[in-house]
Amino acid sequence: MKGQITKLELRTGATEGRADSWFHDFAARALGVVQALVAVENDPDDAPLVAELERLARTFGLESSLAAPAASADACLYRSRMVAQRGQQRREERKREMTAILALVREAMDAAGAEFESFATTVGASTDSLGAIAQMDDPGEVRRLLAAQVAQLKQSAAERRASWVERQQTLTGRLETLEQQLQETRREAARDPLTGIANRGAFDREIETRIQIPGAKFVLAILDMDNLKVANDTHGHPAGDKMIVAVGRALSTKLRSEDFVARLGGDEFAVLAGNLTLAQAERRFGTVLPGLFSDVEEGELPFLPTLSCGLAEFSSGDTPASLYERADQALYAAKKQGKNRVVGRSRSYLRDLLKR
């Protein structure tokens, strides 16, 4: 998506001449995980972590590119309709993950430095010993001492190599654990906690991705439950939540597997249906929605919910905001016409705009 942090890349020649390219590969991999975590939610409170990321990247001869998200009027309008509330606990967990990874990189740097410094000290001491041996007059004694010194150096090198390999394995294992946590964080950040389907943030990313595809062809459907307030007022909010869950489950199972289904918040859902014209989408949703709850068992819900649906077909030049606005206008028309129906809204052509 636009405005997100790009992937860390090794700068040309950054590792040339380095004794341990593994360490730089490790650092790039670890810092890449942090970038991915930052990109999950793009939280302004992450500024200190981003600064630490930039500092470490420069230290290790890596490049990272940070671009502030575009705050266009369209984007603001698009997001202002319903802002998803993020849980404080999940945000804190994400920050702890990023902090742990940066600490791991610093630990790897310290460990590498300590190993190299220790080895340099050993080599320096051996050099002094070799200098003393070179001053001796007895060739036999010189050969004996040289052999002993070489054996000691080989043993020291072998021990340090074994120690460093063990440290590499430990650090790599910890990084792999953090990468697994990243995947779970991504899944959690994209999932609506009540219904288990995609949330508003995932929907934003998906629609942004689709409009960037050359020749993209898809329809946006905005669906709103007609009678959730009745369920909440009459049967209580737990019953209303059951109805919301039922809608999410039904949309996920009754629509095509390639259709992207998300809960935008409250009782509002969205579907991105690919390879359909507006007329085709109207027929499809008009057929599917009446039988959406045909498999719901009696007594499972206080009553069967109905949905109003507004459709808009993507057209070249559309932004997420303009497409969403047309679908929302169609949804408003469906509500005004009596609810529990599907209404499509075509994009205005220039000749229509000139008549106004």
Topology of helices and strands:
Elements: E1 9-10, H1 21-41, H2 47-59, E2 62-63, H3 73-80, H4 88-134, H5 139-189, H6 200-211, E3 218-225, H7 228-235, H8 237-254, E4 260-265, E5 268-274, H9 278-288, E6 307-313, H10 320-336, E7 342-344, H11 350-354
Parallel strand pairs: 6-7
Antiparallel strand pairs: 1-2, 3-5, 3-6, 4-5
- What is the makeup of the main sheet? 5 strands, mixed
Which whole number gives the mean pLDDT? 74
**H/E series:** EHHEHHHHEHHEEHEHEH
Coarse shape: elongated
Distance between the termini: 36 Å
Task: Give an account of the 3D structure.
By secondary structure, the chain is α+β, with helices and mostly antiparallel strands. The chain has eleven helices and seven strands. The chain has helices spanning 21-41, 47-59, 73-80, 88-134, 139-189, 200-211, 228-235, 237-254, 278-288, 320-336, 350-354; strands at residues 9-10, 62-63, 218-225, 260-265, 268-274, 307-313, 342-344. Helix 1 (21-41) packs antiparallel against helix 4 (88-134), helix 3 (73-80) runs parallel beside helix 10 and helix 4 runs antiparallel to helix 5 (139-189). It is elongated and about 105 Å long.
Q: What tags apply to this protein structure?
A:
disordered N terminus, disordered C terminus, 11 helices, five-stranded mixed β-sheet, single chain, alpha+beta, 356 residues, two-stranded antiparallel ribbon
